[in-house]
Amino acid sequence: MIDLVSDTATKPTAGMREAIAQADVGDEQRHEDPTVTLLCERVADMLGAEAALLLPSGIMSNLVSVVVHCRPGDEVVTAANAHVVGSEGAGAAAIGGVQMALIDAPDGRFDAPTLKAHVRANRARAPRPSLIWVENTSNAGGGTCWKLNSLAAISDVAKAHDCRMHLDGARLLNAAIATNTPPADICRFFDSAWIDLSKGLGCPIGSVLAGSRAFIDEAWVWKHRLGGAMRQAGIIAAAGLYALDHHVDRLAEDHANAQRLAQQLRDISGVKVVGDAVETNIVFVDVSGTAHSAAEIASALEAYGMRMGVSGSSKLRAVTHLGVSASDVDAAAQAFRRAVTSPS
Ligand SMILES: *Cc1c(COP(=O)(O)O)cnc(C)c1O
C-alpha cells in the first residue's frame, strides 16, 4: 500500500527503533529523564528559545499554548482553515474558553493589513484579542510557507495590539528546509512555537513546545493538568533525537516527490492541482473537471493499492513522506490517471 493520506503514516525505521531500544531513561515528570532533557535542550536551541518541553501530541502543544497565553473570553486571531479551528475538538473553546476570530485565507497566509482589520479595538464590551496564531507550513492551505517579511509585519501588528504570537509548527521544519531558513529565524517573531515529531520527522509520537523560561514553566503546570506528563518518555525522545539527526535534511526529498506528483497529475485531463506552486510536501487536487467525485477516485485508488485523503466532494489531498519514494509517486500518478479515466 502506498499511503499518501498523511505524513503521519510514517513508521519508525530500523535505525530509529534501535535508538529507542538504546535510550537512557528516567522519570520525565520529575525532570529525571536524560534523553527527554537532551531533546528539549536541542529543540529549544534549534528554535532559538530559552526552554522547551515534550508533549504527547501537537494538539496538546496547541492547547497548552492557548491556555498559557489567554484568559477565558480572550480572542485568538487566525486563518479560518487553521488546524486548531477545525481539527482539535474545539479544545481552545472547551478548555481555554477563548473565542476565535477567523480570517478567510485559502492558502493559510494573511497579511498585516488583513490581520489589523481582524484585531478588535480595546473596548470594555468586546472580546480582548490576545493571541495571533500562525500555521507554518499551512496544512489546509496546501503546505504553503510564510515569508519572513510578512511574519515581521504581522508581529508588528501583534505588538501594537499587545497580543502574543503563536506558531503551530507541525511542519515548521518543512518550511525551514523549503525556504532554506534556519528555524530560529522563523521563530524569532513568536512567543511560542512547536514542532511535531510524528509527521515528516517519522517518529511514532510526540511534539516539542518551545518558548521563554516563564512560558515553559507555566506550560509544565498545564502539561500535568491535562495528563500529558509522562514517566520513562526517553523512549519517545530518543526517536526525536534520531529524527533530528537523520530526517530533517531529507524533507527536501519529500518536497521534490510532491512536485513530481503534482507535475504528473497536472497532465491528466480535468485534474487541477490547487495553488500556484507546491511548496512543500502537500498536494491538493481538484477533480471537479472529471466525471468522478473525490470519494469515487479515492476508492478506485484503494483498489490499486494507493491511498489519498478526501477533503471535499471534489478535492483530494496527497502528502509525501519518508515512506514514499519517487517511483511510488509515479505509480500513484498512474493509478490516479486510471481512476479518473475509468467509466463512471
Ligand atoms: C497534525 C497537525 C496538528 C496536530 O498534531 P498531532 O501531533 O497530530 O496532534 C496541528 N497542527 C497542524 C497544522 C497539523 O498538521
Low-confidence stretches: none
Strand ordering within the main sheet: 2-8-7-6-5-3-4
Name every ligand kind in the structure: pyridoxal-5'-phosphate
Quote the average pLDDT: 97
Q: Give the H and E element order.
A: EHHEHEHHEHEHEHHEEHHHEEHEEEH
Percent helix: 40-55%
Largest sheet: 7 strands, mixed
Structural class: alpha/beta
Summarize this structure briefly.
The chain is 42% helix and 17% strand. With 344 residues, it is an alpha/beta fold.
Task: Provide tags for this entry.
13 strands, alpha/beta, globular, 17% strand, 42% helix, four-stranded antiparallel beta sheet, seven-stranded mixed beta sheet, 344 residues
Blueprint (SSEs and pairs):
Layout: E1 2-3, H1 14-22, H2 34-47, E2 51-55, H3 58-69, E3 74-79, H4 83-86, H5 91-94, E4 99-103, H6 112-118, E5 128-135, H7 148-160, E6 164-168, H8 172-178, H9 183-187, E7 192-196, E8 207-211, H10 213-225, H11 234-246, H12 251-266, E9 272-273, E10 282-286, H13 294-303, E11 306-307, E12 309-310, E13 315-319, H14 326-341
Parallel strand pairs: 1-11, 3-4, 3-5, 5-6, 6-7
Antiparallel strand pairs: 2-8, 7-8, 9-10, 10-13, 12-13
Helix pairs in contact: 1-11, 2-11, 3-10, 6-7, 12-14, 13-14
The chain binds pyridoxal-5'-phosphate (PLP).
Explained architecture:
The chain is an alpha/beta fold. Helices cover 42% and strands 17% of the residues. The strands form 3 sheets. It has a 7-stranded mixed β-sheet, sandwiched between helices. β5, α7 and β6 form a beta-alpha-beta unit. α3 crosses α10 and α12 runs parallel beside α14. It is globular, with a radius of gyration of 20 Å. The model has no long low-confidence stretch (mean pLDDT 97). The site of pyridoxal-5'-phosphate (PLP) has 12 residues, from α3.
